[in-house]
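Support reply, case 0932

Customer input (verbatim):
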Amino acid sequence: MNVGAALRMGTQMLRDAGIADPARDARKLMASHLEIEAGRLTLHLADEFDDLPEVGFFADILERGKGMPVSHLLGWREFYGRRFSVSSDVLDPRPETESLIEAALASSFSDVLDLGTGSGAIIVTLLAERPDAVGIATEISSRALAVARENATSHQVEDRVQFEECSWFSAIGGQFDLIVSNPPYIALDEMDRLAPELSFEPRMALTDEGDGLAAYRVIARDVGDHLKPGGRLLVEIGWQQAKDVHALFQKAGLTDIQVIPDLDGRDRVVSARKY
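Our regenerated output:
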């Protein structure tokens, strides 16, 4: 069997399984097994498919058909122009989170705190984009921290970031120019309506098992002790949470509170300052 025939078969298998974009996913998996960039795949369609990569490709097609994310099969995901290692221990970095990155980079900072870092995509990206900055990242999952450390090393910021295994601010002292977070914000009663792929990601990174606002309450309560005067807070939110998060930050005494949309026009980030 040549590469083109295997690719067509894999695409049809994904289509039959109800995958939304079977051709895209099959091409990504095929390129990975051929160890080439997906954009060069067309050049290899007439090549004979060696037995070992063929077996691996169809094994991945079967797993993808069951709903496993392509990123977990590949072991990485693109975010803000960089490739980040991912696993079932971390939430995949997503394009909408790039809205938080853009907002953070819109003003200068020399030190940053990332609460609930997961894969480390946010803090690693910020430090990679600001070579003079340093940061701390907190995370309660030791397995997630292992992934974050791997990404920090891959993008050569490991000497400028400190990782703490703790809940939110519990092991953090000092104050920062910038505090960022993409906390679990999906309400418990929304979980059964999520895309099947999300069942492969850590539940505690998705939901607080309540109304989706628990993390914002903690952040609002404690952030004043950890922001420098004039310092900024940026959090990612669910598209329907802007009003509630705005109210929490206002009650906490933060000012200059703004809601920032993502590229789809949905509320995605709430920013605030301490004065």
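We compared this against your earlier run and they match. Two observations from our side: The first helix runs from residue 3 to 16. The radius of gyration is 20 Å. Please reopen the case if you see a mismatch on your end.
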